[in-house]
Amino acid sequence: MNDHQHTPDTTPAEDAGSASGPATGPIAAVLFDFGGVFTESPFEAARAVGRELGVDPSLMLETVFGPYDHDTDHPWHRLERGEISLIDARKGILALGSSRGFEADLFRVLALMSRSSGPRREMIARVRALRAAGLRTAIVTNNALEFRDAWRVLLPIDELFDAVVDSCEVGFRKPDPRIFLHALALLGGIEPGRAVFLDDYEGNVRAARSLGIRGVLVGPDPAPALAVLDELLVSR
Length: 236
Prior knowledge:
The chain is of the alpha/beta class. 44% of the residues lie in helices and 11% in strands. It has helices at residues 42-53, 57-65, 75-80, 86-99, 106-113, 121-132, 148-152, 157-160, 167-170, 177-186, 202-210, 223-234; strands at 19-20, 29-32, 136-141, 163-166, 195-199, 214-217. The protein has a 6-stranded mixed beta sheet, with helices on both faces. Helix 1 packs across helix 2 (57-65) and helix 1 (42-53) packs across helix 5.
């Protein structure tokens, strides 16, 4: 990994509520990220640890999670693709931090993430409304095998989603276009232009938009993003 390729020192949801992508028909499906959409963003936890340790928050973020706009051999990316264990990912990230002169303990970031306030009720309610309106829905998440049971119990998965695409199970992760195409295939072969994707990381939204999926960036307050989603659904 290139030490000079740092994640910008911005909140991934600064452009929250924006949407774009070519429209090719009425919306038939809505895809959702998990962390940062249904829960608080994991990226802010990494920044907070950086601030606690007196380390540049953007450098801590990039050290723990890697250059998230890209799919690389960073330990976190390998963990999310199901290639290595959580323990091995932690060791690799600790080594990266040590080479940069600070402690980057993945477990410290995960402990802070665990203190979040739980799932966002407004997001759950919106998915229920989408389902009632006849739209197909899916989760498209970058995640780790070790977290599978913990995050799934936070949502009524079977009630809310027609499909769940977990990076560690399929072997590829956002922003790899294959993960979006796989989700659309599971939903019955829906065309990209008839789908919307919500995520809290702009790079993932850009990747979806590059396929023709209409992307919505979700911020700490999901209300603006939900308003944009409503606007996109008006033409349905």
